[in-house]
């Protein structure tokens, strides 16, 4: 029972982060299952079975709060399902020990870019509203789906920063669209795992516990992402991308950093992330105050102009 409670709380926390930042449910849940000795294929399969329910509820919640661009969902979700099914069927024979750190390095670079861009510049409106093309979203979906199935998570960490970096879709809609399209990915991955593994090693009770926690958190996360300022949300997403992928690289065979070095790097990264968030919040408040002053000034000018016209009209009426 204690294990099931821990799994439910993990599912709740992971979905709260995933639904508000566009990533981390699969990575968090799979990490826990691997830590208790589940083999990689069974861990990924268990998490994806739970995600069928959590992504359905999360997608519906994001749609309810207006966080979904359905064109993006279809353009990235269908190729993502193909990639996920392929990744699930080959996971038992494919080693991702080399591919994982390489992917983490790419994602780390994207995370640094997203963190810097939203922290110091904010959301650029130059490309906002421009369509995201199929030739960009389809390969991205294939790659993200494959990584998600083989790594037990990766749809959000691959898809979210890439679309955020384009500057064509506001952060809340990036997160809502990624979360909604993930339903297609999890269904395809689950079918692939069941075809390749059957039910061997998959604990349906654990999947149910993860599902219950995730379903509880999904509506709250969808509401939360709508009310976080885009600049602050972008900094938060960029920071979690950097921290997550730095940890993967430090633990990989490429670096094999010892505990002291890893701890020091993480302390620095968390301090930088906290500073970036604080700066984003300060700049958001400053810009919001400036906009309010401009609106008030425009209103005062309008009232003054109305008063002048009224004064000019009164003598004419008297004569």
UniProtKB/TrEMBL annotation:
<dbReference type="Pfam" id="PF01925">
    <property type="entry name" value="TauE"/>
</dbReference>
<keyword id="KW-1003">Cell membrane</keyword>
<keyword id="KW-1133">Transmembrane helix</keyword>
<dbReference type="InterPro" id="IPR002781">
    <property type="entry name" value="TM_pro_TauE-like"/>
</dbReference>
<feature type="compositionally biased region" description="Low complexity">
    <location>
        <begin position="298"/>
        <end position="307"/>
    </location>
</feature>
<feature type="transmembrane region" description="Helical">
    <location>
        <begin position="204"/>
        <end position="225"/>
    </location>
</feature>
<keyword id="KW-0472">Membrane</keyword>
<dbReference type="InterPro" id="IPR051598">
    <property type="entry name" value="TSUP/Inactive_protease-like"/>
</dbReference>
<feature type="region of interest" description="Disordered">
    <location>
        <begin position="298"/>
        <end position="319"/>
    </location>
</feature>
<feature type="transmembrane region" description="Helical">
    <location>
        <begin position="232"/>
        <end position="250"/>
    </location>
</feature>
<keyword id="KW-0812">Transmembrane</keyword>
<feature type="transmembrane region" description="Helical">
    <location>
        <begin position="262"/>
        <end position="281"/>
    </location>
</feature>
<feature type="transmembrane region" description="Helical">
    <location>
        <begin position="102"/>
        <end position="125"/>
    </location>
</feature>
<comment type="similarity">
    <text>Belongs to the 4-toluene sulfonate uptake permease (TSUP) (TC 2.A.102) family.</text>
</comment>
<protein>
    <recommendedName>
        <fullName>Probable membrane transporter protein</fullName>
    </recommendedName>
</protein>
